[in-house]
Specification:
Shape: elongated
Strand order of the largest sheet: 8-9-10-5-11-12
Strand content: 5-15%
Bound molecules: adenosine-5'-diphosphate
Helix content: 55-70%
Number of strands: 12
Radius of gyration: 35 Å
Number of helices: 26
């Protein structure tokens, strides 16, 4: 889409997940490096006891072993053991501090990415998927960051070090000790063959369960209202069952290989003992070297097993990193860093074309002038593109071609913050956050005084119903939810917009909550909100916009007529039909048929 940049697209495509992980870890570079350094030192210290045992055995075999010669070695190995554990503890402490700091940074990046991406990009993701990445996948990065980088490196170094020691003693015994590793991998190989495809299917199942659970809980009100508990539960239960079956099936197909590998891998002694004995008997291995080989063969088991456990987890780490990266690399709306010089608050559409989905254009070359301080109404059949045009002004999406300008400046040429200062969008379903009514209104102007908040609430006719609540403006919206009608909630949204005091007001007129008393109050609060402002109304009830300075009739994504109410009645058959439908001459409208779908009333 025009005006969007794909951040790091090329890099994201080619970079491996481990490189991405390292790029995340660079945010706590010093701590991570320190953690790595301490882990390596811990491994180094871990070698000392083995060496001490070797020296003591060598002394014993030579018949020179006494307490006085053994004690320094015993002390050294005890000290090295303690040091190794302390160093390891410090390493994991640092890696955990870094990991959780990085998770916090990633979660903040994630939210700011959602703020900078277009609304379309954000709304294109299911809540289940967003929750999954935001909570679980990002959490999944903790394991590689806190454990893999320091511990895997440590285990790897230990395996390499011990193996090198074995080679230094005798290469044949090294081969005998390590033969079990390829053998273990070989028996596990068939299970690995389909691993990628299996894991991808597993993740798809897991995402499906996640979405179904979120959907079920979100829709519980509808489920109850329409007594659909059985059907909806079936869908939920099916998803959970199918996930269980898939996992069990996968587990069954791999458990033989996995158990064989887990049994074969630690059998270093099986190779070392006969080979060592044979070498000893032909005089090519001293008894102390043989003993040392046995110790090394036993010592190498633990890091090998730890290493394979990590290798097993690699895939889930890969997915955790890839999913997180997918969100962190979402395309952003391009915005300049410096504020634009906007003159006035006129709005202008210049040959605007727009498609939500590539190839499915819904706005076809709209040009429309909304002068500063004027009242413009967008009317037309349902689905004709009225809301889309309003959203393009607020830059919820970017146009595909043409431009939308405010005060002579293309909305893409001003920072998103500046655009947000210029435009208030009051829609039918403005979200109220789970905080007090006061704080919900204050969202319009963070830092507003209590007096300003209450003045705006009064102007939006919120006062009477808010004061009826026991805690007044300090009532949590969640708590008051049951007591607030849809109309009252909308008046809170209008109060928010009044407080914001932006020069351009985009209003998606309510179709719901239209009982006469509420309607009258909403209309009065809207006139206070829009006094002296550039007002664009997406009109559903034509009687509310007869006084508009300009009415643009939208049909099939085009402006088919514009003018004042009386002019359009005389000149625009679609408008005249909609008007008649609105005032109740439905029989007449039905007789002539309606153009472009149902009339939006
Ligand atoms: P109106 O406000 O006049 O009822 P809209 O602007 O909401 O019409 O919709 C115009 C067209 O765009 C319709 O065909 C509608 O189905 C489509 N549309 C609206 N929102 C989206 C969306 N988020 N994704 C894809 N298509 C959409």
């Amino acid at each position: 889409m025009a005006g969007q940049k794909v951040l790091g697209e090329a890099a994201a495509g080619s970079r491996s997940w481990f490189a991405t992980l390292l790029s995340y870890s660079s945010r706590c570079r010093v701590k991570m490096l320190l953690s790595l350094g301490l882990s390596i030192m811990s491994v180094g210290a871990g070698f000392v006891p083995f060496y001490a045992v070797y020296r003591i055995m060598a002394l014993g075999i030579k018949g020179e072993l006494t307490w006085s010669v053994a004690t320094p070695w015993l002390c050294l190995s005890a000290g090295a053991y303690v040091a190794s554990k302390l160093l390891f503890g410090a390493s994991t402490l640092l890696s955990h501090i870094s990991a959780y700091t990085i998770l916090e940074i990633l979660r903040r990046d994630f939210i700011s990415k959602l703020m900078r991406a277009s609304l379309g990009t954000v709304q294109g993701k299911s809540i289940g998927a967003v929750k999954n990445v935001f909570l679980d996948r990002i959490e999944g990065i903790e394991v590689p960051l806190a454990h893999v980088i320091p511990e895997l490196t440590g285990s790897l170094l230990l395996v390499v070090g011990l193996a090198a020691w074995l080679v230094a003693i005798d290469w044949r015994i090294a081969i005998a000790a390590l033969a079990c590793v390829p053998l273990g991998l070989l028996v596990f190989a068939p299970s690995l063959k389909e691993y990628n495809a299996r894991y991808a299917a597993y993740m798809a199942e897991s995402n499906h369960v996640n979405s179904v659970i979120v959907e079920y809980i979100e829709g519980i009100q509808v489920v109850k209202a329409f007594n659909q508990a059985t059907d909806s539960y079936e869908k939920y239960a099916d998803a959970v069952r199918s996930f269980k079956e898939y996992t069990m099936d996968w587990f069954k197909s791999t458990w033989v290989g996995m158990n064989l590998m887990a049994s074969i891998m630690p059998t270093t002694l099986l190779g070392v003992l006969p080979t060592g004995l044979a070498l000893y008997l032909i005089g090519e291995l001293t008894p102390d070297a043989l003993a040392m080989c046995v110790i090394l063969a036993l010592a190498i088991v633990d890091p090998i097993m730890r290493f394979t456990a990590f290798v097993n987890e690699m895939k889930s780490m890969e997915y955790a990193v890839a999913d997180t990266r997918e969100f962190l690399d979402l395309p952003e709306l391009a915005e300049p860093s410096s504020r634009a010089r906007v003159v006035g608050s006129s709005v202008s559409f210049d040959d605007v074309r727009f498609a939500y989905e590539a190839g499915e254009e819904v706005i076809h070359g709209v040009s429309l002038e909304v002068p500063e301080g004027s009242f413009t109404a967008l009317v037309g059949p349902s689905g004709s593109g009225k809301s889309t045009l309003a959203r393009l002004i607020a830059r919820h999406w970017d146009v595909c071609s043409g431009s939308v300008s405010i005060g002579g400046v293309d909305v893409r040429a001003m920072p998103l913050g500046q655009l947000s200062e210029l435009v208030s969008f009051v829609s039918q379903d403005n979200y109220l956050f789970d905080t007090t009514i006061r704080d919900n209104i204050r969202l319009g102007k963070p830092g507003a005084t209590d007096e300003e908040v209450i003045a705006a609430a009064r102007a939006a006719s919120c006062d009477e119903f808010v004061l009826r609540l026991p805690k007044g403006y300090d009532t949590p919206v969640g708590e008051a939810g049951g007591e607030l009608s849809g109309g009252e909630r909308q008046r809170i949204s209008i109060a928010r917009a009044i407080l914001k005091d932006a020069p351009i007001v985009l209003l998606d007129e309510a179709t719901a909550f239209t009982d006469p008393e509420n309607e009258d109050k909403i209309q009065r609060s809207i006139s206070r909100l829009s006094a002296g402002k550039t007002l664009v109304v997406i009109a559903h009830r034509l009687s509310t916009i007869t006084a508009a300075d300009n009415i643009a009739v939208i049909d099939g994504g085009r402006v088919v007529a514009q003018g004042k109410h009386d002019e359009l009645l005389a000149q625009c058959p679609l408008y005249a039909r909609m008007w008649r439908a609105h005032i109740g001459a439905r029989a007449w409208a039905a007789g002539t048929g309606s153009k472009g779908g149902g009339i939006d009333d």
